[in-house]
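Quick one, tokens below:
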């Protein structure tokens, strides 16, 4: 009869174990289907509110383990410890400790001679399971690790029961009956729970892979779209791509203050061109970070009948400056999943980068315009006053010469101040150069000579405006004017299949080597050290920028011998303008 009694007891225990394991399995499946639980699993190690949520969920499982426990020999056969172990494995030490405390508090009020052992073990096992999570990561916990952790947790519980429970004989008799069933059952329950959770992780990874593909498609379709800035036209195209790729309830693209595009539910009051209505965007702008709202109050739309119930509002930021936002809306209280948040943030980061490129291009254009304006305004006042003084002295004795010089000066000023093109034919640039030379020769006479040997085939090639004149001016002002007997400026050009070269050389005083090495550098000390106008430096910078490093200046010089400045830029015969070729090779034009 004794053996039959033991077998009956084991049969009942096995039935209870199976029932409890089934409850754990059903509870695990139902819990993992909750969107809030799935979302929380992705952030449980990072956000306080998500850790708190996991503590409550698995604390509830731990309490259920007590409630569905089977009384036996003055104690309980239960699955309380499963909640503490799984909570720790998925949420880390804080979650494991919190779940362990919740289950322990409920167990305390149930009493029994194993109460203190069960309470202590539940808290300790929850914390230790959290350390396992720290070691492997929540997504690194597989079924094997989970079952081993469950087995170790049960062993710790058995040791506590035998060590802390009195009388020892009662504890020993209890464990002889329930040790093996509870160790097997609870280890299997932990493994089952983790198996179901890993299935959720696998599903999330597939969704993330799909979202990555979606992001790549959107990026491919919107590549370079924002290189023209965040305009209404660009925003419409962008909103269209996002709406038909992601299929949200609504998509909005905003600028700094107004809605630039809106598609989907709520378009009757979220209107393009109108001020931004939602408080979520105001918060996103203020904080400079993504705002996620899961209810109407979080969105903050002032329209009571607005159908929108959730939003991911991602700002477009450049150097901490708010440029606009991308908003993906939900309706009917649909959940916002982690992969959706990451998808929108990834797209927004890419679009912010495009906007940054636009800003850089815009700044480059402004810089180029500033350099161009400097070149236009760089006529030296001394040159102007000296030229006017020369003309005045010629008016009485050589009125015809004075008349020609006045016309040259007038044309030079008009060309310099009114030029609004970035490119010009070489022959037209040379016309400006020779006006300048004639005015200088009126002052210096035969001290200045010019030899122009530019071949006919390059005269109609386009070059950036004021590419030659500042260099010729530099040659006369710093090379020949300081030479007692004057000298000659040589202007020549040639090309090969890929490159056009224009050289301005003089046989003047030359440039000291210590100044030559700093001539094209932009730092302030170099500019002060050379004291050779900013014009030649600006020419080099403009050529380098326009031709993306394939254009610029090379300068060589020898003191007492002269200086050679070589302009090089791509040879582009396709841009030669049709028309009559002006004959080159004449001296002094």
């Amino acid at each position: 009869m004794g053996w039959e009694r033991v077998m009956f007891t084991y049969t009942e225990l096995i039935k209870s174990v199976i029932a409890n394991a089934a409850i754990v399995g059903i509870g695990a499946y139902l819990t993992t289907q909750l969107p809030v639980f799935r979302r929380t699993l992705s952030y449980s190690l990072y956000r306080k509110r998500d850790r708190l949520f996991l503590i409550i969920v698995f604390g509830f499982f731990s309490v259920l383990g007590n409630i569905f426990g089977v009384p036996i020999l003055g104690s309980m056969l239960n699955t309380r410890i499963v909640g503490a172990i799984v909570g720790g494995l998925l949420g880390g030490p804080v979650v494991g400790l919190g779940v362990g405390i919740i289950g322990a508090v409920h167990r305390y009020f149930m009493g029994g001679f194993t109460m203190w052992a069960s309470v202590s073990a539940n808290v300790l096992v929850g914390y230790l399971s959290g350390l396992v999570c720290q070691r492997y990561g929540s997504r690194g916990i597989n079924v094997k690790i989970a079952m081993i952790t469950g087995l170790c947790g049960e062993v710790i519980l058995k040791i506590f029961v035998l060590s802390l429970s009195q009388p020892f004989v009662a504890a020993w008799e209890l464990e002889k009956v329930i040790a093996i069933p509870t160790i097997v059952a609870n280890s299997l329950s932990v493994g089952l729970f983790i198996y179901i959770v890993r299935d959720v992780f696998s599903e999330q990874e597939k969704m993330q892979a799909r979202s990555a593909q979606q992001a790549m498609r959107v990026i491919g379709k919107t590549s370079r779209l924002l290189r023209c800035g965040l305009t209404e036209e660009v925003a419409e195209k962008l909103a269209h791509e996002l709406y038909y790729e992601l299929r949200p309830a609504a998509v909005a693209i905003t600028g700094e203050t107004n809605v630039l595009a809106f598609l989907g539910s709520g378009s009757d009051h979220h209107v393009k061109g109108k001020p931004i209505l939602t408080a979520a965007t105001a918060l996103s702008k203020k904080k400079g970070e993504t705002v996620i709202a899961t209810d109407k109050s979080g969105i903050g739309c002032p329209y009571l009948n607005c159908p929108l119930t959730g939003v991911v509002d991602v700002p477009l930021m450049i150097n901490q400056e708010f440029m606009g936002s991308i908003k993906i809306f939900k309706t009917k209280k649909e959940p916002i999943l982690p992969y959706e948040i990451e998808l929108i943030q990834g797209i927004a980061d890419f679009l912010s980068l495009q906007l940054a490129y636009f800003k850089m291009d815009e700044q480059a254009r402004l810089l180029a315009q500033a350099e161009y304006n400097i070149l236009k305004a760089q006529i030296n006042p001394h040159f102007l006053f000296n030229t006017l003084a020369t003309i005045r002295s010629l008016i009485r004795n050589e009125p015809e010469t004075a008349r020609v010089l006045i016309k040259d000066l007038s044309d030079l000023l008009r060309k310099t101040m009114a030029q609004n093109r970035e490119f010009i034919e070489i022959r037209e640039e040379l016309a400006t150069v020779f006006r300048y030379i004639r005015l200088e020769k009126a002052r210096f006479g035969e001290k200045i000579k010019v030899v122009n040997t530019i071949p006919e085939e390059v005269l109609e090639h386009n070059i950036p405006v004021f590419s030659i004149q500042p260099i010729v001016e530099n040659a006369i002002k710093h090379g020949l004017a300081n030479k007692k007997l004057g000298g000659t400026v040589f202007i020549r050009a040639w090309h090969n299949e890929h490159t056009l070269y224009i050289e301005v050389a003089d046989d003047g005083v030359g440039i000291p080597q210590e100044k030559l090495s700093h001539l094209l550098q932009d730092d302030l000390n170099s500019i002060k050290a050379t004291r050779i106008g900013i014009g030649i430096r600006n020419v080099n910078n403009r050529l380098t920028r326009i031709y993306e490093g394939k254009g610029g200046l090379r300068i060589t010089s020898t003191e007492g011998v002269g200086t050679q400045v070589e302009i090089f830029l791509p040879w582009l015969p396709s841009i030669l303008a049709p028309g009559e070729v002006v004959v080159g090779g004449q001296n002094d034009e």
